[in-house]
Amino acid sequence: MTLTPVDEKQLLDYRSLGAHQAAVTFLDSAGITGEVTYRKLADKARGAAGALLAHGLTRGDRVLLPLGTGPDHLAALWGCLLAGLVPCTITVPPSPEDEAATGTRQFRAVVTVTEPAAVITADTETATALTTGDGPRYMTVADLDHPPATDEQLTAPGPDDAHHIQLTSGSTSAPKAAVLTYAQVTANVHAIHRALELDPARDRVCHWLPLHHDMGFILSLSTLTRGVPLDLMPSISFLRDPLSWLRHISRRGATITTAPPFGYRTATARFLRTPDTDLDLTTLRQAYVGAEPIPLQALTDFRDTFAKQNLDEAAIIPCYGMAETVLAATMSLNRREPGDLSWGRVKALRLDREHLHHHNKVTDAHGDRSSITVIACGTPLGGLTVHVRTPDGTECADNEIGEIHLRGDSVMAGYLHPGGTTAPVTDRTHATGDLGFTRDGDLYIIGRAKEILIVNGRNLPPYDVEETIETHPDIDAGNSAVFSYTDDTGEHIVATVETRLRADQHERLKREASMLVRQSFGFNLQNVIVLRRGGIPRTTSGKRQRSRLREDYLTGRLA
Predict the structure, then answer these.
(1) pLDDT grade for 69, boundaries at 50, 70 and 90
(2) What is the full DSSP assignment across 256-300?
(3) What is the mean pLDDT of residues 50-79?
(4) Cα-flanking dihedrals φ and ψ of residue 130, to 5°?
(5) Cα 178 from chain centroid (whole Å)
(6) How many other CB atoms are found less than 10 A from the CB of residue 101?
(7) pLDDT tens digits, one per residue of 72-104
(8) What pTM does this model have?
(9) Where are the beta strands (DSSP E) in 376-502?
């Protein structure tokens, strides 16, 4: 009996990739840097599969891919899948020769957790720097240039075979590795096909998320398996010129994109500073947004800023998901009745902040009482159900706050354990660690249980405190991060902020940020740390890494 029931005839089969007529185009902030047709990609992938098998790798072996966005990455990735190997795409260590560097330590931690048979790097210099005496085999993309594997070598996968491993979270010493099977990936990818209504004759997908990010990988996978043209831009190109993302959508007629709130907010801010009136977003029919709880203001600002560039407000689609469910869990696909807090496919609630934080109750805000706005992340995709539960496992009714559990076909096999074993998932259900509630069929996220700040018996999401700190005129939106730590005297709250102010203004900024928090929430920050611009560590999709900040603070690395 399979972990996830599925019609085996529907399992993803990458041997047919070359039958599609489309191409993958690679972009930077200026323009096109390269292109590979699906047929050429299929040929390169078959050659990579042949090389990997010739080097003695066998079905089920795990392979790490610390590669940047580009045709070599795609060829190596699909070569692994064709050969029945289990790829794990990870970020490239920026200083592989430096064992003390964070990126190198993270890489070593991933090797420890995943125990790969091979690592494929971009060049011999990186391979040499990363190689250890008793570790996996190190190869380069040049080693994958090989005669194609035969059809006999490329046997069809089974539903319970591991498809890939996705790193989800954790410190530099203990990352989590979710094992996703062919049945689970197939279920989620087919659900994405239906939700996006992907049509090779109409659509073009364009995004800048890296392939080691679950959203970047699975959206690209969904695009490729439907034969839709795909435009990929490295995230560093977006960061250098955020408007280049929208410029490519405009010039190339892209219809679908995705980004975290950080991406939409950054593009909006850049446009307001340096408008590009030639932008035309007429073709964009779906722009997905997800990550941390989504701020309504970021979506409203994006809508209003680009309305004159023919952006359809209904293109903006809030969603919720994670690697443990392959990618997508819920999407706000339904059009909403227009109102003060709803438009297009966006719907929000304005809740009483005191009731939420002091009494764990969902109450609509009235009058001038302090409030918080939360976004509807929509309804579950096919094969998944949402359950909100109290700590004792009791199912919550609508408007009752609890931990979000996701159950269904695309829930992971489990986390990888030493020796290659997988911790089983009970009843096909994943306890997400996210807090939320349901109303009228929609899921609302209010925070993450492990990041919740507990102050004098009150539960506070860090996002609320950060939002208050960012009302300071010298701290931009998204440029603060708050975390807590506990010692023998109790729990303490620390804030980090980025600013353009000179060093002689930092003490004033600390005092004023502390005052804002004290006035709004009634407690004192243990510390306020001022960082240079870019000093708050983030994932490649822009999420603030609060656990990393906590680790750096407690070990004295946060200056």
Answers:
(1) very high
(2) EEEE-HHHHHHHHHHHHHS--TT---TT--EEEE-SSS--HHHHH
(3) 97
(4) -90, -20
(5) 14
(6) 14
(7) 999 999 999 999 999 999 989 888 898 877 788
(8) 0.86
(9) 379-380, 384-389, 402-408, 414-415, 429-439, 442-448, 453-455, 458-460, 480-487, 490-498
